[in-house]
Automatic annotation (TrEMBL), chain A:
<keyword id="KW-0812">Transmembrane</keyword>
<dbReference type="InterPro" id="IPR004714">
    <property type="entry name" value="Cyt_oxidase_maturation_cbb3"/>
</dbReference>
<dbReference type="Pfam" id="PF03597">
    <property type="entry name" value="FixS"/>
</dbReference>
<keyword id="KW-1133">Transmembrane helix</keyword>
<keyword id="KW-0472">Membrane</keyword>
<protein>
    <submittedName>
        <fullName>Cbb3-type cytochrome oxidase assembly protein CcoS</fullName>
    </submittedName>
</protein>
<feature type="transmembrane region" description="Helical">
    <location>
        <begin position="6"/>
        <end position="26"/>
    </location>
</feature>
TrEMBL record, chain B:
<feature type="transmembrane region" description="Helical">
    <location>
        <begin position="206"/>
        <end position="224"/>
    </location>
</feature>
<feature type="transmembrane region" description="Helical">
    <location>
        <begin position="261"/>
        <end position="282"/>
    </location>
</feature>
<feature type="transmembrane region" description="Helical">
    <location>
        <begin position="444"/>
        <end position="471"/>
    </location>
</feature>
<dbReference type="GO" id="GO:0043682">
    <property type="term" value="F:P-type divalent copper transporter activity"/>
</dbReference>
<feature type="transmembrane region" description="Helical">
    <location>
        <begin position="420"/>
        <end position="438"/>
    </location>
</feature>
<feature type="transmembrane region" description="Helical">
    <location>
        <begin position="761"/>
        <end position="786"/>
    </location>
</feature>
<keyword id="KW-1003">Cell membrane</keyword>
<dbReference type="InterPro" id="IPR059000">
    <property type="entry name" value="ATPase_P-type_domA"/>
</dbReference>
<feature type="domain" description="P-type ATPase A">
    <location>
        <begin position="305"/>
        <end position="396"/>
    </location>
</feature>
Length: 61, 802
């Protein structure tokens, strides 16, 4: 019988954990700007490409 | 990529002939930026987007005020001496390349440790080391790569901005509790008589109670506050029945689980609040890159150069300017106060103030008004009035700017809710009395059930979702509304007042007519070649009008500021400019701007500049005249009167020479006679009228740059669609009325269960989300199909208009 108490406690702890994560995310301003990060995440690839092809890049037009 | 487009900014580079690194550029400025980027390994900038840049402007001395520590202190977000953080608004931010370059600023200058772009707001937040890089140098660096920040007086007074995130917290709490309560009430729904579940019933119920506590006392507090405020001012707003429903739900559920009568309605309670907050959240569409609250402060500079009595230059804060001070106004700087021109040639652009794009030339001793922008080198002026007392800024001391328009009227939901609340209370009382007689044990049950089921969830959701969606659709069509109540106000409009210059006329386009002796081919070639060298706006317009000719290299070229241009090629000389300059004396005073031409000292004729009206103007007016009273209030002279009477429907009223205060008073007068006024304007001089009217729409050629305080901003390219937008607002009101009907239907079904005393928690738990979701679905589908915004007929009609 007590297993239900254990399970419930775990489930609530998990739920509250996510809830706290949500609050923290809001506080850090994650929801203030929903557009820029979507662009920013694409830059990493471009940087690597630029380094390897730098010499070619200046030649093409 | 086009060979002749500038590699940096995309402008035409064929005439400039600047080639560097096998790429063509339109000017040295663009080339320099490219050089900076290529030296610092930042050419990736050009991979992300073709020609993303802007030509850097000459800013010599413009940011001297950033040496003033008092001003710096106000601008910084964080400052501990060494590390400083500043957020700068950069209007040029427009593509992914911009984000990339601005977030890689540290490659250009190692003193910058971090920079984060907010694309929506067009801001960049820069952390830098103040010991090695001053704020002024940082701004200079940004300007040198074409990202000049816009620093205005507004930044000075606000200090640290506070972001209100309470709604999203409340929504999060409600959603969290709703999910968990649903999960815990599942066993109850199926009523399985299973032994273990029976054992845990009280525990589950108390857990649900615990989850609902933050929802009732935190998430829904706005409804209680609003209901209390409404009752105190004797208004039965929609929040009254909501607050009533929520409290009855909570109290009855608590009592039920306390005495083990039933499971309570915690699922419906949390769900209700979650849906309501979701509606609120949806309606709260904001345009981060637009501001509807701008006044003169958003355009005025923070600091200005003062010349002290010893003749030294010194940066002062504009609020510190006193009468009698001597100021130095540089090229492209805004004049912050009324003053008298002392030294230099002034050519003032008053487009911020009047919407009029033509510049005005002033001579020493002339009075200059605050809000004008100097376009022609450096001038010195003597201050006549301080900032707040200047002609333009005085307008803001009018009471109109202190009123909050949205508080002044009852919205459609609240109009319904009054009758709704009263009828619900009557039904509850009747049902309770009936049951008191028949079966008194059920009376209290029925009474609470009625209040619970009648809780106007669907009713309260109809308006937010309809308006929220219409707001979004209009936003996509470049009509940006401040908030949802503007749609309701727009639907009630019966009088439309237009400003003239910049509103019904296009700023950039003018139509030009030539009168006089026709020019020979040689003269035309000479004229065009001469105009090519001048940067005066009139010369530019005229230059683009003339046919293509071979460009001659002139033997002599001289520009006389404020007068005209003189040029010579071989034997031929030409004079272009004002009537006295070209030696034409019999000029009668005309009201329109004109450029006179003389060739070899004989007068030829003049080019007269007329306002070019926006496309589809007369069609728009003809459509509008059927339903609305139309008025044109212009600050200009009557020069265009004949033109306008020809163009517009005859019953349109035309009023000229209207000062900003006159416009405001005119609207006030009509409102006192019961008219619902829509004002459409563009300049700061319309700000009073825009604030006074029921709905003030600002027309803007570039929505990012300029618009006075208003209720809505309309992109100038969509001006001729105005009729459809107003009609769409009416359709939105009709959709809301239909969804009210739908939600009453649900209420009737619910009330049947309630008055007969059969309301089970399951019924409530099904009925409430079902009604809410179907209302949301109905309003979304209906608004997406508003004929004036979507129908192919409406779309197709537009090309014919032109």
């Amino acid at each position: 019988m007590s297993v239900i108490y254990v399970l419930l406690t775990i489930s609530i702890i998990v739920a509250v954990g996510f809830f706290i994560a949500f609050i923290v995310a809001i506080r850090s301003g994650q929801f203030d700007d929903s557009y820029t990060p979507s662009v920013r995440m694409l830059f990493e690839d471009e940087l690597i490409k630029e380094k390897s092809k730098k010499s070619i890049l200046t030649k093409k037009d | 990529m086009d060979k002749h487009a500038c590699f940096h900014c995309g402008l035409d580079a064929s005439t400039a002939n600047i080639v560097y690194d096998e790429k063509s550029f339109c000017c040295q400025g663009c080339k320099t930026v490219y050089q900076i980027f290529s030296e610092n390994d930042l050419t990736c900038y050009y991979d992300l987007q073709n020609a993303p840049g802007a030509t850097p402007k000459d800013i010599e001395g413009k940011y001297n005020f950033l040496e003033n520590t008092k001003i710096i202190e106000q601008l910084l977000e964080f400052n501990d001496g060494a590390t400083q953080i500043v957020s700068l608004y950069i209007p040029h931010i427009h593509c992914s390349s911009c984000i990339w370059i601005l977030e890689n600023l540290n490659k250009l200058n190692p003193s910058i440790s971090a920079s984060v772009v907010n694309f929506g707001k067009k801001t960049v937040r820069i952390t830098f080391n103040a010991e090695t890089l001053s704020l002024k140098n940082l701004v200079t660096l940004l300007s040198s790569i074409g990202y000049e920040p816009f620093i205005s007086l507004d930044d000075y007074s606000v200090g640290k901005k506070h972001i209100d995130r309470s709604l999203i917290y409340k929504l999060g709490v409600a959603g969290f509790a709703f999910g968990n309560v649903m999960f815990l009430s599942f066993p109850e729904y199926f009523e399985v008589g299973e032994f273990w579940l029976e054992q845990f019933k009280p525990f589950f119920r108390w857990l649900m109670f615990a989850f609902s506590l933050p929802v009732v006392f935190y998430s829904s507090q706005d409804y209680f506050i609003s209901a209390y405020k409404g009752l105190r001012s004797k208004i039965l707003n929609i929040d009254v029945p909501i607050a009533l429903g929520v409290s009855v739900l909570f109290i009855r559920s608590t009592v039920e689980i306390m005495f083990d009568i039933g499971s309570g309605f915690f699922d419906s309670l949390t769900g209700l609040i979650f849906f309501l907050l979701l509606g609120k959240f949806f309606q709260q569409k904001t345009y981060a890159f637009l501001s509807f609250e701008r006044d003169y402060k958003s355009y005025f500079p923070i600091g200005i150069t003062k010349i002290t009595t010893e003749g030294k230059e010194e940066s002062v804060q504009v609020y510190d300017i006193e009468k009698g001070d001597r100021l130095l106004i540089r090229n492209e700087e805004l004049i912050p106060v009324d003053c008298i021109l002392i030294k230099g040639q002034a050519r003032i652009d008053y487009s911020f103030v009047t919407g009029e794009s033509k510049t005005v030339s002033k001579q020493s001793g002339d009075k200059l008004f605050a809000g004008g922008k100097q376009l022609n080198g450096t001038i010195e002026v003597d201050v006549l009035k301080s900032v707040e007392q200047s002609y333009l800024t005085q307008l803001w001391s009018n009471d109109v700017f202190k009123k909050d328009k949205s508080l002044a009227f009852t919205n459609i939901t609240n109009q319904i809710s009054k009758r709704f609340t009263i009828s619900i209370l009557i039904i509850a009382v009747f049902a309770t009395t009936f049951w008191l007689i028949v079966d008194s044990s059920k009376a209290i049950n029925v009474f609470t059930s009625v209040l619970i089921i009648a809780c106007p969830c669907a009713l309260a959701l109809a308006a937010p979702f309809t308006f929220g969606n219409v707001l979004r659709i209009l936003g996509k069509k470049k009509f940006y509304l401040k908030n949802a109540s503007v749609i309701e106000q727009l639907a009630k409009i019966d009088t439309i007042i237009f400003d003239k210059t910049g509103t019904i006329t296009a700023n950039k386009e003018t139509s030009i007519a030539y009168e006089g002796i026709s020019l020979s081919k040689d003269e035309e070639v000479l004229l065009k070649s001469t105009l090519r060298g001048s940067n005066h706006p009139l010369s530019r317009s005229l230059y683009h009008l003339l046919n293509e000719h071979n460009i001659l290299t002139l033997d002599r070229y001289e520009e006389y500021l404020g007068k005209g241009i003189e040029a010579q090629y071989k034997q031929d000389s030409i004079k272009i400019g004002s009537a006295p300059f070209v030696g034409y004396t019999s000029e009668t005073a005309t009201l329109n701007t004109a450029v006179h031409i003389s060739s070899n000292n004989t007068y030829k004729g003049k080019f007269t500049f007329y306002n070019a009206y926006r496309k589809g103007l007369s069609q728009l007016f003809n459509k509008l005249k059927q339903d609305y009273d139309l008025v044109i209030l212009s600050g200009d002279n009557e020069g265009e009167k004949d033109n306008l009477t020809k163009l517009l429907p005859t019953k349109t009223k035309l009023l000229f020479n209207q000062k900003p205060e006159d416009k405001l008073e005119y609207i006030k007068y009509h409102q006192s006679e019961g008219a619902h006024v829509l004002m459409i304007g563009d300049g700061l001089n319309d700000a009073g009228a825009l604030a006074q009217s029921h709905v003030g729409i600002a027309i803007s050629e570039n929505v990012n740059v300029f618009s006075p305080a208003c209720d809505a901003i309309l992109d100038a390219s969509k001006f001729n669609e105005l009729y459809h937008y107003i009609k769409a607002s009416k359709s939105a009101i009709n959709i809301i009325k239909w969804s009210f009907l739908l939600s009453f239907l649900y209420n009737c079904i619910g009330l049947y269960f309630a008055v007969t005393g059969q309301l089970e928690p399951v019924v409530a738990a099904i009925l409430m989300p079902l009604s809410s979701i179907s209302i949301v679905a109905f309003t979304t589908v209906a608004t997406n199909n508003i004929p004036h915004l979507t129908s192919p007929k409406g779309r197709k009609r537009m090309p014919e208009d032109e």
